[in-house]
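Renewal narrative, Specific Aim 1. Our central claim is that a sequence can be written position by position from structural information alone. The example that follows is taken directly from our test logs and has not been curated for this report. It begins with the structure tokens describing the chain, in the order in which they were read.
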């Protein structure tokens, strides 16, 4: 059996009897007499079911342990059975109030009944997990859906703050997907999205959380991963998609294939950043820049300059398909204004000359890229 049972019992004789009974049935069991140790084990091992006495060694009783198991996301919500000599109704009510699912008295203990309740608890846990998983899954791609992504991002940000560990977030968007759908149809588009999702799953680590954000946009939460590590993972995904041949229609030898690329934006958590801002920096800033700089590339949001402007870098060091020098012109105008306030006209003339030269350069670059786009369109047609 794959199910893991955590037994938390302070009486050694009772613990040994129950441990042997469970192991004879084929269950994997971890046993401890202490409540604080039980929580640590539950976080680390994520048991499916916990058998819990009320009176325990250490500072925590069974009620406190049950509350913690139900509050901590890291424990994966195990099925909890109280096993105790306490038999008053108020004890049972208090146990259920902590989030326990069942209560067995040691005073009239039956091994067969106990094992039947364990089996039933594990069946309920499995059914609950299956229903929860299906409700969190996107039907087309089998990745997590948008709702689950938002819940997980909030949890990961909280965990990052609590444990002081790195966290990165990436957004991935299929390039020119609308034109692809218009040309080949939505069925072909859906096949491509499903295959891209498969590539993402195969390229990600088990700790990463990948989801379909909406339409042709995907997102990946990368826990305990700094910006450099995130770039490595996302470049692996970008290359895998770029080099893949996507079957879009036909079959056998008549199968038609298409090439597809993606643009990616990445941002990492820094102090004071909310989940919403982390999304904005990776999606609205970094991914948007990757799209506007020519697509099929990764851009990284690294912060703000001393003027409060975004600092975005091309992760692969690619040359952009256009050069935006508007910020340079803006900076020159600022300097001109400061020089005017200095009342030092000898500095103004070279600045004015430089600004005019840059304005001329900007116009030349605009015409250059307009011609490139026109030439590319004519070549494709």
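The sequence written for that structure reads:
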């Amino acid at each position: 059996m794959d199910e893991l049972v955590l037994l938390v019992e302070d009486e050694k004789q009772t613990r040994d009897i129950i441990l042997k009974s469970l192991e004879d049935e084929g269950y994997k069991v971890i046993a401890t007499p202490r409540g604080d140790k039980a929580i640590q084990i539950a976080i680390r091992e994520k048991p499916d079911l916990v058998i819990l006495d009320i009176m325990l060694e250490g500072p925590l009783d069974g009620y406190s342990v049950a509350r913690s198991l139900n509050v901590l996301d890291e424990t994966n919500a195990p099925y909890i059975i109280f096993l105790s000599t306490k038999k008053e109704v108020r004890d049972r009510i208090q146990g259920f109030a902590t989030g326990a699912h069942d209560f067995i008295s040691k005073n009239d203990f039956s091994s067969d009944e106990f094992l039947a309740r364990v089996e039933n608890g594990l069946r309920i846990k499995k059914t609950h997990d299956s229903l929860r998983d299906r409700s969190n899954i996107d039907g087309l791609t089998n990745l997590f859906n948008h709702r689950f992504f938002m819940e997980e991002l909030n949890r990961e940000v909280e965990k990052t703050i609590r444990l002081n560990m790195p966290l990165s977030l990436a957004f991935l968007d299929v390039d020119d997907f609308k034109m692809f759908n218009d040309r080949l149809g939505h069925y072909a588009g859906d096949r491509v999205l499903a295959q891209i999702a498969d590539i993402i799953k195969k390229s990600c680590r088990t700790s990463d959380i990948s989801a379909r954000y909406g339409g042709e946009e995907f997102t990946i939460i990368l826990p305990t991963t700094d910006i450099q590590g995130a770039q490595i993972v996302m470049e692996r995904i970008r290359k895998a998609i770029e080099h893949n041949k996507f079957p879009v229609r036909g079959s056998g030898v008549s199968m038609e294939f298409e090439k597809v690329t993606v643009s990616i934006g990445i941002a990492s958590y820094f102090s004071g950043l909310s989940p919403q801002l982390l999304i904005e920096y990776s999606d609205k800033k970094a991914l948007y820049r990757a799209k506007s700089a020519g697509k099929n590339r990764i851009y990284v949001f690294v912060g703000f300059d001393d003027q409060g402007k975004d600092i975005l870098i091309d992760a692969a060091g690619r040359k952009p398909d256009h050069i935006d020098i508007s910020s340079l012109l803006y900076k020159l105008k600022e300097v001109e204004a400061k020089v005017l306030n200095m009342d030092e006209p000898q500095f103004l003339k070279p600045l004015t000359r430089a600004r005019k030269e840059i304005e001329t350069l900007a116009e030349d670059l605009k015409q250059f890229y307009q011609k490139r786009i026109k030439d590319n369109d004519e070549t494709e047609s």
